[in-house]
Amino acid sequence: MALLNQEQIKEIIPHRDPFLLIDEVLELEPGVRAVALKHIKEDEDWFRGHFPGHPIQPGVLMIEMLAQTGAVSVLSLPENKGKIAVFAGIDKARFKQPVMPGDTLKLEVEIIKIRGPLGIGKAVATVDGKKAVTAEIMFAISEK
Questions:
Q1: CB-based contact 76:31 (threshold 8 Å)
Q2: Distance (Å, whole) CA 58 – CA 118
Q3: How many other C-beta atoms can be found within 10 angstroms of the C-beta atom of residue 93?
Q4: Residue 54 annotated among the catalytic residues of the structure
Q5: What does each C-alpha distance from 10 to 46, 47, 68, 86 come to in angstroms?
Q6: Residue 79 in 3-state DSSP?
Q7: If exposure means fewest CB atoms within 10 Å of the residue's CB, which of 74, 103, 121, 142 is most exposed?
Q8: Which helix (H) or strand (E) holds 113?
Q9: Alpha-carbon distance 79 to 56, whole Å?
């Protein structure tokens, strides 16, 4: 059961369609961790070109989904309300299996370090309990 739906997510992070890439948040510990879901639908616009006749979820968009999940956690802290989290780096990204329309990605991000406006999240995306993507995502928190 969702803790936050898309409208509630929009109250925390500034992303909007077509670039709000998480559907619901299942777990949230502000500044510590978040777990979200993305239901991969056949009509996602990027499948028109990636790849026609053999749609595969783009890896860079899965990294963005993980980043948005982590942003929900760090931007839920009272001192970060109304701010944005932007990429500062991506390390150790690994794509373990293809993700296809009809799959649901479970996106888990644990914030492992925050120092001032900079931080690192350990990110894992799974489909049916099997790892699809792992990465360390670095972020910077800034004013809009």
A1: yes
A2: 27
A3: 16
A4: no
A5: 22, 24, 11, 16
A6: helix
A7: 142
A8: strand 104-115
A9: 38
Catalytic position from the list 15, 39, 50, 54: 50
Overall residue count recorded for the chain in this entry: 144
Tell the residue number behind the tokens 């794509």, with chain if given. Answer: 95
Question: What gap in Å lies between CA 47 and CA 121, rounded to an integer?
Answer: 28
Residue 2 has a pLDDT of 84
pLDDT of res. 70 = 98
What is the residue-wise DSSP string for 30-72? TTTEEEEEEE--TT-GGGGTS-TTS----HHHHHHHHHHHHHH
Q: pLDDT tens digits, residue range 41-91?
A: 999 999 999 999 999 999 999 999 999 999 999 999 999 999 999 999 999
For residue 144, the model assigns a pLDDT of 84
The letter for the amino acid at 16 is R
Q: How many CB atoms lie within 10 A of CB 114?
A: 16
Within 13 Å of residue 125, how many CA atoms lie on the same side as its CB? 34
Closest CA to 111 of 130, 136, 134: 136
